[in-house]
Amino acid sequence: MSGITSSSVIELHNISTSPTSDPENPRSVVDPFSLSVGIKSDEEISTLTARHRKNASRWPYTGGRLLGRGAVTVADPQAPPMPKVKQKIDVKGIKEFYESQNESIQQLLKPVEDHVREAKEEHGDNRIRYLIAVNGSFAANIVLAILQLYGAIASGSLSLFTTMADSIFDPLSNLLLILSHRAVNKVDANRFPSGKARIETAGNILFCFLMCAVSLILIVMSARDIAAHNDSEETTGFHLPSIIAVGVAFGTKFTLFLYCWSLRNTYSQVRILWEDHRNDLFINGFGILTSVGGSKLRWWIDPAGAIVLSFLILGLWSKTAYGEFMLLIGVSADNSMLRLITYISMTHSDQITQIDTVRAYHSGPRIIVEVDIVMCANSSLRVTHDVAEELQIKLESLPDVERAYVHVDYETSHKPEHFLKKEL
């Protein structure tokens, strides 16, 4: 489900939205639904997992005859006791469930101001690291492209030509990402009122298609080399400086991969760079193996390795392009974001009696939110407007929300105002 539909309306009539903590403290936790009761301490989680582990080895019946799927007759004194059967239980999964539940409850109870503040602090603290990740990757990719170009030309290895082609496109991709990021800050809001957040996504898709096109060209080149090769040659020439050049590229990419790891979920641009460094580790490592194999074992290992590498590049970037396409066309937000938006809407004001519909979907890396709330039919236009506008501003202040739309109803028996599929 992409949200809460009108067929599953949340009733709020009997719920008090008054704070459960000190009202004089604006930072106090508001918990009208007593969600904090569900938070488990570390000791409680350990006790629950131990109880599940203990009960897993027990068998509830001491005698009788099995009938069908687990049914038993009345215990027969003459029948031998049934053996104890140990049931396999995922204790680790139980612990992870309670830890995830604690995290979800704490996220819901956190005030919106704290979400905004933490996002600003995170972006502010990581600003220098972000610039190093982007500009450092760009500078490193230029140097590595030159090194791998030398290695491929000097050795003549098709596997190294594949790694070289990938490395040449790396600085071009970095330049594309930098330009698209700058374009986001210069968008004319009158000309593109809703396209600002999608420019980076469009740039990512373009780069993915470039990498896929290069992979297809290298597959054709490698296949032609295999078909035209002279079988009298058992191996290709070995060129140590070329292997060293690609080895340096591998070590550099590994360093950049580790550096971008912690920022990959904060900036979409850094996530693309992290995925690129991750892919290059597989490509360069496998390229070294197949190039050495072609020079020491059999000649066909080198072009065959180039084909495998090209298919690997094609598959990895096709998967990345698919993910970016899903963001561009409007895939639903994850369940944790839907829960947070629903809880914020439910606890926003005691004037809201019900929540009719909650939808949240991507528009590029950010999210569009649609909320239908229900208020009393006798509420004045001023009250209705103020409640809806304050909720809209609150939702739009969340870090990942691009725009929020709040619709007000006085009942829930009507058909949905918007249809997902419109007839032409």
TrEMBL record:
Residues 348-409 form the Cation efflux protein cytoplasmic domain. One of its GO terms (molecular function) is monoatomic cation transmembrane transporter activity. Its main location: membrane. NCBIfam families: CDF. Residues 137-321 form the Cation efflux protein transmembrane domain. Keywords: Membrane, Transmembrane, Transmembrane helix, Transport. One of its GO terms (cellular component) is membrane. One of its GO terms (biological process) is inorganic ion homeostasis. It is found in: Membrane. Pfam families: Cation_efflux, ZT_dimer. It is a multi-pass membrane protein. InterPro entries: Cation_efflux (IPR002524), Cation_efflux_CTD (IPR027470), Cation_efflux_CTD_sf (IPR036837), Cation_efflux_TM (IPR058533), Cation_efflux_TMD_sf (IPR027469), CDF_Transporter (IPR050291). The chain crosses the membrane at residues 130-153, 159-180, 201-223, 243-261, 281-301, 307-331. It comes from the Eukaryota. This is Uncharacterized protein. It comes from Morchella conica CCBAS932.
